[in-house]
Amino acid sequence: MSFDTKLPDFDTLAKLAKDDPVAFESLRTKLLEDAVAAAPERLQPSLRQTVATLNREREGKPPLEAAAAANSAMLSSFRQLATSMKGLQEECTGLYVSTRLREIAAKR
Asked: How big is the CA angle at 21 (ends 67 and 54), to the nearest 5 degrees?
């Protein structure tokens, strides 16, 4: 499945959000659902959870605060990913070093 939906330009979206917030929210929800549906099946549950979390963060907030809340949640997630990747890199480095040491020892 692919996500081929063409987004309206920014000005059109901004006007829709201002003039008809219900329609804008409906479009936002549909686009998110389409994007999740286009993702590999194994990732869909996690993506649905992320969308639900972001929706809870946005609930009842003015648009700018909702955007800030979403940005904060994404930044937090990015930091967790960076921490995990750093740990993985350290593990890989340790494995490489121990493998090399065993190879050197085996040659003696």
From this structure: 35
Place of tokens 């190879």: 103
Nearest residue to 58 (alpha-carbon basis) of 48, 42, 43, 73: 73
Give the predicted TM-score (pTM) of the model: 0.66
Count CA atoms within 13 Å of residue 49 on its CB side. Answer: 6
Q: What is the pLDDT of residues 68-97, one digit of tens each?
A: 988 998 899 899 999 999 999 999 998 888
For the chain, the straight-line distance linking the first and the last C-alpha, in angstroms and rounded, comes to: 55
Q: How far apart are CA 44 and CA 62, in angstroms?
A: 28
Average pLDDT over the chain, rounded to whole?
90
